[in-house]
Amino acid sequence: MFHRARLGCALAAAVAVASCATPANDPAAGQAPVTVSSCGQQLRFERAPQRAVTLEQSSTETLLALGLGERMAGTAYRAGKILPEYQAAYDKVPVLNAKALSGEQLRAAAPDLVVSSFASNFTKDKVGTRPELQALGLPSYVSAVDCPEHEPGLTPFERLFRDYENYGKVFGVADRAAALIAQQREVLKKAGEVRAGRSGKPTVVYLYSVFKGLPYVAGHNGMPSDMSRILGAPNAFDDINEDWPEISWEEIVKRDPTVIVVGDLSDRGAPGDSSAEKIKMMREHPVVSQLTAVRQNRIIDVPGIELDPTVRSANTLRLVGEGLKALGV
Prior knowledge:
The protein has about 325 residues and is α/β, with parallel strands linked by helices. The chain has helices at about 10-20, 55-65, 85-90, 105-110, 130-135, 155-170, 175-190, 225-230, 250-255, 275-285, 290-295, 315-325, and strands at about 35-40, 40-45, 50-55, 70-75, 95, 115, 140, 205-210, 215, 260-265, 300-305. Helix 1 packs antiparallel against helix 7.
C-alpha cells in the first residue's frame, strides 16, 4: 500500500505567500468596488470583507492559504486534521460549530461574506438559501468547482483556480492569488509528467466514504475526475454524472479497477470514515476481496478532505501520481 506522505514544496510555498499578510498593512485598503460571479449570482463588494465566515474546513484552509485569517469571523465543520502550516492561523478563528452551522449561529457572527465549497450547504434547514441570505444583505460565495454549469469549458482544477482569482479580487489580494495559482499549476504540470512513457491506462476507483455499508465513490466532473485526467488514469465511475454517487460493492467489482484510492476521514468520526475501516471492509467482502487491486495491495491512502475542492487538492493529485508510479502501474 502506498501511504500519504508529507506535503510537497508547492503547498509549503503557498503558506509562505500567506504569511506576508498583516492587519496593519492591509492590501485591500482603499480598494475600488469589485463584482464577481459565483454559482449563478453576481456579487458586488464596495469594500473588501472583514468578517468572512466559512462553512467547512476545505474553504477555511483555502482562505488561510491566502493569508486571510485576520478577516474571518468564524468557521465550522472540521472534517480532518488542520495542516500544521495553518494551525496557528486556524486557532485564531472562532469555531462557531464543530459540525454544521445553523442559520442562527451564522447571523450571530455578523458576517459580511459566507463562503462554502458546496452549494448543498445553503438550504433552509442549514444556514438558509442563497436568495434568503442575499435578501438580508449577506453575499454567499460557492466554489466554482461545485457549479460546472456556470463555468463551461473549465476543468475542476481550472474552476478551483477561478475561486482563487475571485478571492484575490474580493479581498484585494490578487498578488497572493496569482502566486498560489502559479505554484499549483507547477504541481499539475509535474503530475502530468507521471504518465509519460506509460503504455496503458490504469483505471482508478476513488472510495470516499461508506455509509450503512454502501460505498460512495467519485463520479464525473469533480476533483478526482480531473486528477485522473491529468494523470492519464481514468476514473472508473466517470460515466456517472454525480460528485459522489452511492454504488454497490458489486459494481466496483464489475469495473475491476487497477488501483483503489481510499480517502481517510478519520477525524469526521462516522462509521466507515477511516481508511483502515474501508480497507478492512474490502478485505472482508467475499467478492471485493478477490479483486486484483485488493489482493495485490494496489491501494493509495490519501486525506479524504483533499478529494473535495480545497487548496490541498493539488497535494492529493501529487500523492496519487506518486502512488501510481510506486505501484508500477
